[in-house]
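Curious: explain these tokens?
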Amino acid sequence: MNKKILIDAIGILLIALVVVVGYKLSPILLPKADLTVAPEPGCDLHRRACKALLPGGGSIELSSSVQPIPMVKPFTVQVVVRGLAPSRVMVDFAGIDMNMGLNRPELLDQGDGRFVAEATLPVCITGWMDWQATVLVETGSQRIAVPYRFSGGHD
């Protein structure tokens, strides 16, 4: 009977450990923004760069080196930030209706507010898929998120 109690106690401790680790990692997996800004209406990332105007001035613009944005082929993603001094810029690519795994490249500072990285989007087995590319800009005092939506699955 003591073995059963010991095994139950170990099981409860393992569950508690998983909960604590999940809680500690949740900001990494699900980043929270202090400010969420909508991009300009009607912008199509498959055709051109898309910009979001920040309250109080400034902007965040997202573009791809290849239009339309390819699936399963590397492309360069670029973010141009005006009116802010970011300490970190990332783009979180997420499937709208299907979890496609964590795909959040950190962009490298190229100077003059320009940040770039290489990204690759996985292909969905159903073919066509709706995506959200959320640009995450961190400054010393806040995190700004700009969710850009687009569809993909064609070359």
In short: The first strand starts at residue 35 and ends at 36. The chain has one helix and nine strands. The longest helix spans residues 2-29.
